[in-house]
Design brief:
This protein is mainly alpha-helical. It has one domain. Helix content is 67%, strand content 0%. Helix 1 runs antiparallel to helix 2, helix 1 packs parallel to helix 3 and helix 2 packs across helix 3. The chain is flat.
């Protein structure tokens, strides 16, 4: 029981979402978007072209902001080799290299 309010039950804290899985999914979506833009002509189909154009600005923002977010988490882990946040970093670097090579 709560000492301040004896009639209230103690609240149960909800577990925080696992940030790694959220960041990993966002990284995979970003990589798939940019790599698909290299190999698929999105402007053949008007519906796909519209979706591609609508997603362009959020993807640019994500590819710019996600490395900063990853740097903060890697800094919290003291840049340990076994940190799971290296996986999204490698995905984003690989996407950038693929875009430079194939563009």
């Amino acid at each position: 029981m709560n000492k301040k309010h004896p009639h209230k039950h103690p609240t149960v804290k909800k577990p925080k979402p696992n940030h790694f899985w959220v960041v990993l999914v966002i990284s995979v979506i970003i990589c798939a978007y940019w790599i698909s833009g290299l190999f698929i002509n999105a402007y053949r189909n008007p519906g796909i072209a519209e979706a591609y154009q609508l997603l362009w600005l959020p993807m640019v923002m994500c590819i710019c902001c996600l490395p900063v977010y990853l740097f903060v988490h890697l800094n919290k882990d003291h840049f340990k080799r076994n940190s799971v946040f290296w996986i999204p970093v490698i995905l984003i670097i690989a996407t950038g290299l693929i875009m430079l090579i194939y563009k």
